[in-house]
Amino acid sequence: MAVDTTPFDSGLDLSNYDDEQARLMEEMCIVIDENDRAISAASKKTCHLMTNIDQGLLHRAFSVFLFNSKNELLLQQRATEKITFPDHYTNTCCSHPLATALELEEAGQMGVRRAAQRKLEHELGIPADQVPLDSFQYLTRIHYVAPSDGLWGEHEIDYILFVKADVDLNINENEVRSVKYVSLDEMKEIIATAEETGTKLTPWFKLIDENFLYKWWAKLDNLEDMKDHKTIHRLL
């Protein structure tokens, strides 16, 4: 795939940010059109600048929801060092497949699955053999846009993946500030009281919660009827 960032700006100096998070901003994301067709690649930095998002730059992403054998969802609070949405609570793991041969593979969502497995290990220390590729259940895609601050934001088509596994955690503190498992009722309470308690939630997590999460969660052990692989839900 040709790397083409024109006419998008990527020249921002990241020296004032955490060194590791700045380094990760150079990873190459998959640039797509509104129908999720891969058209080029651009750095994570380029893809997340609001000046570029405002021009329509769109990239592929995924969101993992990991449940344990008690059907509790693992939430994470993003690290303070994160450049976008620091200290926000969100689903288990959210990131991007990279513009590499393995993570560009679209058949059976294999590229997205590999990226999800990679990031679960990177952020949460979950060994790959505890979340094999075939354990991820792909439900659907959402298309959304959300500013983080005046400079950064997200514009993604986001693959929603559910996985049920009891896993070992070894938290990467540069990525994740805290984690906790919650029941469905506890999740509803967190959402209902978020404004009162000052709990910050990532925009994609709120959209998934408002539109899909509870009906999927209720069918966690029988998700086949919940899967919609054709629709890209435009939550814009």
What does this structure look like?
The chain is of the alpha+beta class and 236 residues long. It has a single domain, classed as Nucleoside Triphosphate Pyrophosphohydrolase (Alpha-Beta Complex), CATH 3.90.79.10. Helix content is 27%, strand content 27%. It contains eight helices and ten strands. The strands form three sheets. A five-stranded mixed beta sheet has the order 6-3-8-7-10, with helices on both faces. Strands 5-4-9 form a three-stranded antiparallel beta sheet. β7 and β8 (153-164) form a beta hairpin. The radius of gyration is 17 Å and the shape is globular. Residues 1-5 have low confidence and may be disordered.
Q: Tally the helices.
A: 8
Strand order of the largest sheet: 6-3-8-7-10
Mean pLDDT, to the nearest integer, reads 95
CATH superfamily: Nucleoside Triphosphate Pyrophosphohydrolase
Main sheet: strands, sense, barrel:
5 strands, mixed
State the end-to-end CA separation. 28 Å
Rg value: 17 Å
What is the CATH third-level topology name?
Nucleoside Triphosphate Pyrophosphohydrolase
Could you say which overall geometry the principal axes of the C-alpha atoms support? Answer: globular
Indicate the CATH class: Alpha Beta
Reported CATH architecture? Alpha-Beta Complex
What is the count of structural domains? 1
Percent of residues in β-strands: 25-35%
Share in helix: 25-40%
Structural class, from helix and strand content?
A: alpha+beta
Number of strands: 10
User: What is the ordering of alpha helices and beta strands?
Assistant: HEEHHEEEEHHEEEHHHE
Protein name: Isopentenyl-diphosphate delta-isomerase idi1
Organism: Kickxella alabastrina
Keywords: Isomerase
Enzyme class: isomerase
